[in-house]
Design a protein that fits this description.
There is one protein chain. This protein has 359 residues and is an alpha/beta fold. 30% of the residues lie in helices and 17% in strands. It has an eight-stranded parallel sheet. α5 runs parallel beside α6. The mean pLDDT is 97.
Length: 359
């Protein structure tokens, strides 16, 4: 990559001086322990990628109800908080900053995958009809239990306490996961949210839960430590947010409201509506991160150059190349991802991808 590329310009994210415009995107790896503590190799995995500057972790559940998949980590018990401390220290020691992505899976879950084996929770009792890997093999996600208004307030408090736990573990901030078909995204989507109370029905009501979660976390740890991820029109987890104009109306309203909270960044998992992305960029007062599926190496700086983004998070490039920053700077060839090792397992496909020089 050209040494004069916009990617190599330093950037200050809130109070964090980043050396460039790259970051590590959040990626589920399913290698946590059964009790939700990070797996034994997680410290090495994240430390290897600290040169990306901003390291956003895999989704971390804020409660037992928040777990969707097998072997995902949490941040709601003292043991889990303690388990993240050496990871934060290792990322810092290697020159990076750590944000934990707070992810409540909502209806994208199965009772067999959670510690309590209760039905999953969601805005409405509508199954996602998705295949879910469980200890006994693939099963369909069941019909979830609709959260009561009082329970919604409890979930908001779980997010708040999880954010406090992340800071107690030494993380530099958190990313609220309001994307990719999970609980907050489910509240935004009309085909998953058929509520008739203050949390459903209108654009404003469907956005209310996401806004209240963001408010609670920003009040707890500070807006300068709080980012949020959205994925307008992404049909993951069985969601259908309507036609283009419906999606634009929902997300323009949501982002306008979030913009008043002083959050440190907006992370857009972008499907391709550049007109919407451009309007969100104009509305948002701080950093915008944009990640796109299928982006090629030579396209990494494109959204920054177009004024649509400030930071370009890397997913599979970062997963398969612990030294991706060095490789991009020098023009070196990139390792390819091994799809068979993406989820679960040990060091293979996790911490053993080759680097240009010995660690």
């Amino acid at each position: 990559m050209d040494p004069s590329s916009s990617v190599w310009q330093p950037y200050t994210l809130g109070k964090l001086p980043l050396p460039h415009r790259l970051a590590m995107a959040p990626m589920t790896r399913n290698r946590a322990n059964a009790d939700g503590t990070p797996g034994v190799h997680a410290t090495q995995y994240y430390a290897q990628r600290a040169s990306l500057g901003l390291v956003i972790t895999e989704g971390v559940q804020p409660s037992e109800d928040g777990q969707g998949y097998l072997n995902t980590p949490g941040i709601h018990t003292p043991e889990q908080i303690a388990g993240w401390k050496p990871i934060a220290e290792a990322v810092h020691d290697n020159g990076g900053y750590l944000f934990l992505q707070l992810m409540h899976a909502g209806r994208i879950s199965h009772p067999d995958n959670t510690p309590h084996h209760r039905p999953p929770v969601a805005p409405s009792a509508i199954s996602a009809e998705q295949d879910m890997i469980t200890p006994t093999g693939p099963q369909k996600t069941p019909v979830p239990r609709e959260l009561s208004t009082a329970e919604i307030r409890t979930v908001i408090d779980e997010f708040r306490r999880a954010a406090a736990g992340a800071i107690a573990a030494g993380a530099d901030g958190v990313e609220i996961h309001a994307a990719n078909g999970y609980l907050l995204h489910q509240f935004l989507s009309p085909n998953a949210n058929e509520r008739t109370d203050a949390y459903g029905g209108s654009v404003e009501n469907r956005a209310r839960f996401v806004i209240e979660v963001a408010q609670a976390i920003a009040q707890e740890i500070g807006g300068d430590r709080t980012g949020i991820r959205i994925s307008p029109a992404f049909p993951l987890g069985g969601l259908d947010e309507g036609d283009t104009e419906a999606v634009r109306a929902q997300y323009r309203y949501l982002v306008e409201q979030l913009a008043d909270l002083g959050l440190v960044y907006l992370h857009v998992h972008h499907l391709g509506d550049d007109d919407l992305l451009r309007s969100l960029r104009q509305t948002w007062p701080t950093a915008v991160l944009v990640v796109r599926y299928g982006r090629e190496r030579e396209q990494i700086a494109a959204d920054i150059d177009a004024g649509l983004a400030d930071i370009a998070p890397l997913g599979r490039f970062a997963l398969a190349n612990p030294d991706i920053v060095q490789r991009l700077r020098t023009g070196a060839a990139l390792n390819e991802v091994d799809p068979s090792t993406l989820y679960g397992g040990g060091t293979s496909g996790y911490t053993d991808y080759p680097t240009l020089s010995p660690a």
